[in-house]
Specification:
- By secondary structure, the chain is an alpha+beta fold.
- The C terminus is likely disordered.
């Protein structure tokens, strides 16, 4: 977890379970979505100008779109529990950011799930992918 600059705690809700009482994979995707948005709001946002922030974070002008997301569920935590989520930028490419996620159960201390997302930098006015602005994505330095 020490490699992840963003950490957020999210309780498992009763409705996050499937019919068998296990944490739903859809719930894990939503939790990682929360971590991804928190990463850009809390860690990237303060490092960039307000105009770049408005576009990049809010999807107006130059922003980002989720191109691909995947998860691997390793353990099946159950309600009640709290997951500690971590997010980090794993790699920067010319027009995309690859992020990595982790979810750890507070109850057991085990890694419940890992995930990865490819986020494209996108010009919402011209409607095409563009080069990623490094100052908007790599505040934590080269890894």
């Amino acid at each position: 977890m020490h490699r992840f600059p963003l950490r957020v705690r999210l309780p498992i809700q009763w409705g996050d379970q499937d019919a068998t009482g296990q944490l739903s994979h859809i719930a894990v995707y939503r939790m990682f979505e929360t971590a991804r948005l928190e990463y850009f709001e809390k860690l990237v946002g303060p490092q960039i100008s307000p105009s770049v922030h408005n576009g990049f974070i809010r999807g107006k002008g130059i922003g980002r779109i989720l191109r691909n997301a995947s998860i691997t569920v390793l353990e099946m935590p159950q309600y009640p529990d709290v997951l500690v989520l971590g997010a980090r930028t794993k790699e920067l490419q010319s027009n995309r950011i690859i992020q990595e996620y982790i979810a750890v159960s507070e109850k057991t201390g085990l890694v419940a799930a890992t995930g990865e997302a490819v986020i494209a930098t996108f010009d919402h006015v011209l409607r095409h992918a563009i080069a990623t602005a490094e100052q908007a994505t790599n505040y934590e330095g080269k890894e």
